[in-house]
Records
---
Amino acid sequence: MKQREVTDQHNTTWTCVQAYAAVESSATEEAIARSETDSGAVPVVCTPSGGAQTVRLELEKDWLDNLSDDELATAISAAQ
C-alpha cells in the first residue's frame, strides 16, 4: 500500500492513502476504478497523528507522485 505523510502548519502529521488501495485483488481494482470520478479524481483518506478528524479528499489519480507536500497540506486544510 502506497501512502504519503505530510505535516501541516499546525505540526499535525497526516498519513494519506488512496481509498480501497490497502488490499490487492481483482475486487480492489474494480472498486478503485468505480470510485474514480468523471474528472479522473480518486478518493484519498488522510488520518492525523493528533486530535484532528480524518479527512476525505478527491485528488487527481497521480497525487502520490505529482502533488507537492504544500498542495496536499492545503487540500487537507480546505477539507477540514
---
Amino acid sequence: MIFENTREFAQSLDAQDVLSKYRDEFIFPTVNGKQVIYFTGNSLGLQPKRAKSYVDEVMTDWANLAVEGHFYADKPWWDYHERFAGPLSDVVGAKPTEVTVMNTLTVNLHLLMVSFYRPSVKKYKIICEEKAFPSDQYMFQTQVDFHSKTVGFDPKDALVEIKRREGEHNIRLEDVLAKIEEVGEELALVLIGGVNYYTGQVFDMKTITEAGHKQGAYVGWDLAHAAGNIKLQLNDWKVDFAAWCSYKYMNSGPGNASGCFIHEMHHNDTDLPRFAGWWGHNKERRFKMEPKFDPVRGADGWQISNLPILSLAPYLASVEMFAEVGMDKLIAKRDLITSYLEFILHDIDEAIEGTKFEIITPSDPAERACQLSVYLHGQGRELFDYLMQNGVITDWREPNVIRLAPAPFYCSFEDMYEFGQILKQGITK
C-alpha cells in the first residue's frame, strides 16, 4: 500500500478498519480536555468498559451470597478460571488443558523453573538474551545462586547471554543457534522473551525451541510482550512452558494475574517436580482434604492457591473480546497500523532538516509486532516530555529511546497522523 501523511488518508484507513468499533469499548484518559493518543499498551493496556461490570458482578455475588458464591454465583468462583481455557488457548496456540491463570508473571516463571530448571554438575547452564527485562535477569541470578549452593556448580558460568553484534540493535537468529550448539550438553534451559521489551524484536520461537531440544534442554518463553500481540503456536512448536502477564496487550488491569502454558507432554510426568498447593489437587477429590498431593492432569495442576476472583474478572472481560475478534484480525491491523506509523516517522525525519530518528525495531514485519522503538538522535527527554504534555502517552527508555505501541484494539490510523503533527511541533518549537 502507498501511504500518505494526511488526515484524509488516515481517516480512509479507519473507515475500512473492521476493528474500529472496538475503540469505543475502551476508556481513554484525557490531557488538556482531549482524549489521549495512547502508545503504552505494551506497559498497561487501556481499561475495557465492560471490565467494571465483571468486577461489579463479583462484588454483588459476594454481598448476596458470601461463601456460597463459590458454587452459586452466576459465574461460580470454584471454576471461574476454567472460563479462560478456551479463549486463552486460542490466543497462544495451545490446547485448553495446557493453559491456566494464576499468580503474577515472575512468580510463575520461578514456579515453572522448579519443574524445568533441574541443574546437575554437568548440565546447569541457562541461555537468555542480553538486556532481558530486569525482572527476568534477577530471577535467573537468584535461581542460579540457589541451585549452585546445593548442586555445586560455579554460578558465574551458569548464565549465558546471547549478545548483539557490535553496532547492531537486534540479536541475530544464527547467533542464538550457534550459542545453543556451543553450550551443547551443558545446556539445561533456554528461556528468552518472545518479544524483546526494549527493541520490540520478535524471536523465531519455533526454530530456537527445536535447537534447544536437540541439546537435551528444556525451552521456555517469557511472553509478556507477546501474548495478545503475535501469532503463537506453543503446542505445535513443542515449547515446554511459557508465562505471560495479562495487563499489557491483554488489558486486564495493573499488575493482574498471569497466564501459564505447560505442554501436554509433561502433564503425566510424575517425576517432574513442582511446588504444590490445594488448588492444584485433583478437583473431584479436593474437599476430601487428602494428605498426598494428586495434581490435576493439565496446566491447572501447577496452580497453588485459591484464585483471586476480583483480579480475574477484568481479565475475563478482555479475554472474551479476544475470543470475539480472533488473533488473525488483530494481527492484520497490527501490521498495517505499525507500518503506517513507521511511514509517518520516516516522512517527518526526511521533512525536517537536522532530525534523525533511528527505528531500532527490525524493519522486517516477520521480526516485529506492535512496537516501534525509536532512538532520538539529536533529540532527547525534552521531546518526550513535550509529547506527554500534549496528550501523546508513550514511554521513555534510557539512554534515548521512546517506545511506541499502536495496539490494534483501540488505536486508530488518525491517531498515527495526529501523533505525527504533534511530533513535528515538538521538534520545531
